[in-house]
């Protein structure tokens, strides 16, 4: 996994609450058997005026002029500013894959749906939780200043404005460690293979009906 | 110390607690389907890893499979959408390559993963159950710890039989009293979501309890747990009681003989201690719950059938007003109109929420002797599994649906998320027994109204939403 240390980038808005994963990446694109290539279809139904399909040339499709990510000022953004309960709905990891493939490295919102939040960390994407009032301030500053950028320092757990103001955020220690170093979680878990086997042996003795039934 | 059901299930599966707050949790059952597994198998291949424990896994294709008999009968090769076909074929190929048991597209045991797990006894009380699908909470109805995971975690479970987890908080949703006639498990869970909101359960494992929940059938409990995620909670569950034991006994993969005795006595402990602490408690009364209909684009935008669609002009909070205006615009509805004036053009009875035998019986009882309204373009009934389909046909339910003008289909996820050919056209309203009314969920520009099977069936006949409590059954 790609490491996340310090990121400075242009900020773009997704200014509505309860953005669901169907909105982030509609179901027809879930038919892919790959992890990459979802960026052109991120927010597909908001971004384009017609219906997208896998394999279509997206450059020929009519863009929705009212969708913020289509505005010139937000091109090249790597920080997505969002509202409450971002990423609700399905468990599809295609949602963080699409955000990542588009070029986002970080999302800032007052809250996230649990599965989406967890999936982000597996893909080098940092979901930051800040107070709703602070997020509202960031939205206002972003709208008022074209080219508005933020810096995220994961080691220090702060979001920094270009004026130098710092906002601290919380992140779970294990997830932070993995993200900072780009660690492979499966490799880490397999270092505990003996502990897993010990548990498994005891559990099999206690609950034998859970083993060797489906084969 | 007194424990909740969630605490007990967590503790019995704890491999390792770490100082940083994370924990290694052992997974007993891993269900796989074609949409969220291909990248996980590819990850295993690239790292040269093998599954930790083959017999913990069970796979079936469900999201992409055609439900039309003509297309379905030809198997994988006959799937017309080439992208869907590749995905289903890839699951078959991966399961063969890694030696994982799969019920393929036309196996009679195939079906929606969350229907086949309990019906086969592949998911049991006291298990940890995961699947790359957010509706995995369904299996919590059996007193299991079950939740959805992403594809990276699918790979992690395949390779290590464990997940790295942070313990959730405990929430009790208690529904006491009695349900009014015609009010079902679907109405209960929609009312809960309307009450706590789609983010109300974020960070919590929800245990559903109280007289109403205990009075539900196992199928009804599955419907309730299934939609815990629509209240924000990854986990929904119900304590084990006699209904659970009776449901599990005799299922193909359930223990027998001496092992059954051992299992049953272990399962009888799977309930929260009477003095267990919950971080949050939500209480509803069964009598207060009417048949529910969603009017908007989030499951929390739900009202009793006798209600009227919210009027944005009457909402003072700017953010809420914007959300309601946006939803009404998408749904093509006017603030203030009666729910019963909404006219669907399609009806969908199916999905992991409501495609079990009890759901089909409830819908069949309503349509029996009637004809689908002329304003309905299509009414689909999609059983949750091959076994549900067989049972429904043995009871003659298929004939009742067909005589009334509904289509009787092959099992799969179908129009719940429209990854196959079953979908809404732009602007069409659908009375749907599924679980999500998000924009575009059932088809580009489609407008979903979530309801119970009986309510969907009544809307198919009447051509608009009606209060099923006043329905005249022709038995």
Structural write-up:
The complex is a heterodimer of chains A (215) and B (475). Chain A has eight helices and seven strands; from the N terminus they run βααβαβαβαβββααα. Chain A is of the alpha/beta class and 215 residues long. Chain A has two domains: 6-183, Aconitase, domain 4 (Alpha-Beta Barrel); 185-215, no CATH class. Chain A has a seven-stranded mixed beta sheet. Chain A starts with 5 loop residues before the first strand and ends in a 9-residue tail after the last helix. The model of chain A has no long low-confidence stretch (mean pLDDT 97). Chain B is an alpha/beta fold and 475 residues long. Chain B has two domains: 1-290, Aconitase, domain 3; 292-470, Aconitase, domain 3 (2-Layer Sandwich), CATH 3.30.499.10. Chain B is 32% helix and 16% strand. Chain B is built from 16 helices and 18 strands. In chain B, strands 16-15-14-17-18 form a five-stranded parallel beta sheet. In chain B, helix 7 packs parallel to helix 9 and helix 13 packs across helix 15. The mean pLDDT of chain B is 97. At the A-B interface, helix 4, helix 6, helix 7 and helix 8 of A face strand 2, helix 2, helix 4, helix 6 and strand 7 of B.
